[in-house]
Write a structure and sequence with these properties.
This protein has 637 residues and is an alpha/beta fold. Helix 11 links the parallel strand 9 and strand 10. It is elongated and about 115 Å long.
Length: 637
């Protein structure tokens, strides 16, 4: 509804040309300043009224009326100087209280000093000082009465039926969330005790909540205190520690929730609103990734960035993280319109984003897109990735992973792309599957056909938690249907990291690459798939073997029991980042590589799957030549 115009002859703040921001602040602050002025008038008059028993002599009264405007001006100036306006006093803290004290003292000094400089006031000096002190008290009462009454209202409401929480971790994070719970009763959580493995802390208290024991005491304390949940407040904990505490909570038949990990917090500050349910990532326990943000920013800020496979798990996370570094343009390319739309919708609206519906298998379309967009940085994530599926459909692996990569590389080289990053896999190391061999050949294509004037690299890593079609979503679907959970082999192990962690390291690797190298991410220790299955079952609130059976289904074609982390023929070198290693293989023989591509194209056309597998196996040992002959032309010799 439109606001009515101001009365005739009265100017509104807008009508005199003030900006909206100034108008809003005036509307908010003027009422408080008027109340302060009323407080000043009252507090300087009150001492005289009390002393003179309500009958102020005329000489004092006239002198007071002449001095009050100066007192108002001096106090309001002090209040403005120390920021007593423009604050949300509902959330005031010690810092705001300090401002009130400083403003009050400064106002008293200004008033008393004015009397010394301009001559004595026509009222006794003791009344002037008393009035200033009362004014200071009044300023504080005005500002903090909301906090006081709001606190009592929250207490009356919040104490109705709070959840009783036992907190594990009496460090900085535990103390922060403990104080936050005390200040925000409306969260509905009440801390009834602390647990910490440091025996020196036992018996001490934080915010009146006592440290009662170690992790081994959790079941006993849960029963004794009537706790309904345990809050795990150790953001830097290992997966082993998280698992042990989770097992104790399971024994005590109580829910366990967690604070975010170190890498999930902003500025190291945690609050009660950050509490979340336990996830499988917590149980696996990956360490924080330290990024050289400046090098990544130099790589991406102000650049035109294109991501193929942008609708996938890795591609969409790359898009989200790249958007945070302020690229000039962010082009998302995928052949699935739904995933492409979802990826674009997840990105901050301030980033200029283009959705490109295209398939890397279509050479002419990819050449057209790159010629139009002319990306400076390309992340090529588009690929088929499921090992058993590609064992049955090797042609599809060649069409997308091999020929699709060749199409993107050719288009990037023709468009003058400065940096090209291929997302590869640990399955490309000594490959035993169609998927691994196709990605190994894709690495050769990138290193063989991208010109040395660009910086092209491949980044290898293992499984990512929660990606579409990966093991954990598969386990969860099996659990939801009542089981059984299938594990291919009791000795099967895989390397895991979270999607955000993997992408952070991909961006870091891209910034470190000098071109022509293959970078391998440190995946930590391999995780037993059998143990992982048990953890996911427990995480879903069931007991392995009793509620949900685990069945051994047998190793599938192309699978390894444990993935390799290095190739015997490659020298793994350290990089400037402790979690990234690199190799510098010789450049492939481009002529031989081109012949392999032509051969695979013809075999795909003739539907010769067995022959395709043989060529892929042979292609993992491509001959090398010096770094020359660098013009890209798949349609050439």
């Amino acid at each position: 509804m439109d606001r009515p115009p101001p009365p005739e002859g009265v100017s509104s703040p807008r009508s005199i040309g003030l900006p909206d921001r100034v108008v809003q602040r005036l509307r908010r602050d003027i009422p408080l300043a008027v109340l302060d002025a009323v407080v000043i008038l009252a507090t300087y008059t009150l001492p005289l009224l009390v002393r003179m028993e309500g009958n102020i002599p005329d000489r004092y009264w006239q002198g007071l009326k002449g001095s009050l405007p100066l007192f108002v001006l001096l106090h309001l100036s002090a209040n403005f100087l120390f920021g007593l306006y423009g604050q949300m006093w509902r959330y005031a803290s010690v810092e705001e209280a300090r401002r009130v004290v400083l403003a009050g003292i400064t106002g008293i000094v200004l008033v008393v000093g004015g009397g010394l400089l301009l001559g004595p006031y026509p009222v006794p000096q003791s009344y002037v000082v008393a009035g200033g002190v009362l004014a200071f008290i009044g300023f504080g009462a005005l500002r903090f009465q909301t906090r006081l009454f709001a606190f009592h209202r929250r207490s009356a409401k919040g104490d109705a039926a709070p959840e009783r929480v036992l907190i594990f971790g009496a460090g900085d994070a535990g103390a922060m969330v403990l104080r936050d719970l005390a200040q925000h009763r409306s969260v509905g959580l009440k801390a009834v005790g602390l647990v910490d493995d440091d025996p020196r802390k036992r018996g001490l208290a934080i915010a009146d909540v006592r440290i009662l024991g170690t992790r081994r005491d959790i079941p006993r304390l849960v029963e004794r205190l009537g706790a309904t949940e345990v809050l795990f407040a150790v953001p830097s904990a290992t997966g082993e520690l998280v698992g042990e505490v989770a097992a104790l909570c399971e024994e005590a038949d109580v829910q366990m929730r967690v604070l975010p990990t170190v890498r999930e917090t902003v500025g190291g500050v945690v609050t009660a609103r950050d509490i979340r349910d336990l996830s499988i990532e917590d149980l696996l326990g990956r360490s924080q990734v330290d990024m050289d943000l400046e090098s990544v920013r130099d790589l991406l800020t102000g650049k035109r960035v294109l991501i193929t496979g942008a609708g996938g798990s890795i591609g969409s996370e790359i898009a989200r993280q790249v958007a945070g570094f302020g690229p000039a343009a962010l082009d998302l390319l995928d052949n699935d319109e739904t995933h492409l739309h979802d990826a674009a919708a997840s990105i901050d609206g301030e980033t200029p984003t283009n959705q490109l519906l295209a398939d890397v298998r279509h050479r002419d379309r990819i050449l057209e897109v790159f010629a139009e967009r002319r990306p400076e940085v390309v992340f090529h994530t588009a690929a088929h990735k499921h090992v058993p599926v590609l064992e049955a459909h090797p042609r599809e692996a060649v069409y997308t992973n091999v020929l699709g990569t060749a199409n993107v590389v050719e288009a990037a080289a023709a468009a003058g792309t400065e940096r090209f990053v291929l997302i590869s896999t640990d399955k490309a190391i000594r490959p035993r599957s169609v998927m691994g061999a196709s990605k190994r050949l894709a690495e050769e294509i990138v290193r063989g056909f991208m010109p040395p004037s660009s910086s092209a690299c491949a980044v290898r890593f293992g499984n990512v938690l929660g990606s579409r079609g990966s093991v954990i979503p598969t386990f969860l679907r099996q659990i939801q249907s009542g089981g059984p959970v299938t594990v291919t082999d009791p000795d099967m192990k895989r390397y895991f990291m979270s999607i955000p962690e993997a992408v952070q390291l991909v961006l870091q690797a891209a910034a470190l690459s000098e071109g022509g190298d293959v970078l391998t991410l440190d995946m930590g220790e391999p995780v037993s798939i059998m143990d992982l299955a048990r953890k996911v079952i427990r995480l879903s609130g069931r007991v392995p073997g009793r509620d949900i059976k685990i069945v051994i289904s047998g190793v599938r074609p192309g699978e390894k029991i444990v993935e390799d982390v290095r190739d015997a023929g490659e020298e793994l070198l350290p990089s400037a980042h402790p979690s990234i290693f690199l190799t510098r293989p010789s450049r492939p023989d481009r002529a031989a590589l081109r012949r392999t591509l032509h051969h695979l194209e013809s075999l795909c056309a003739s539907r010769s799957d067995a022959a395709i597998v043989e060529v892929l196996e042979a292609s993992t040992a491509v001959a090398t030549i010096p770094e020359a002959d660098l013009l890209v032309s798949r349609g050439g010799a």
